[in-house]
Design a protein that fits this description.
mainly alpha, 0% strand, extended
Length: 90
């Protein structure tokens, strides 16, 4: 959003980054030998559930004013950062 992306473009960019990170993680875990059939099955189940949610998110974002979407993303970043900071000091 800091680069001027709005609405669906933010979601698409996040999805692209998530796919790239997933491929990298798959490679690292595969090379480390920790990918078991159980882990792969759970990951596929999570993917099957998450995939339709991207279309739901797109529908929601298309109907939201940009300032509301921006405020929601800012809140997620602030809450996530706060949780990371206080979680790190436990």
């Amino acid at each position: 959003m800091a680069t001027g992306l709005e609405g669906s473009a933010v979601i698409a960019t996040d999805a692209t980054v998530s796919i790239a990170m997933g491929v990298i993680k798959l490679s690292v875990f595969g090379l480390a030998g920790v990918l078991t059939p159980k882990v792969v099955t759970i990951a596929l189940l999570i993917g099957v559930v998450a995939f339709p949610c991207t279309f739901l998110a797109k529908l929601i974002v298309e109907r939201l004013p940009v300032h509301v979407h921006t405020a929601m993303l800012d809140a997620v970043v602030i809450i996530g950062g706060t949780m990371m900071i206080f979680g790190a000091f436990r």
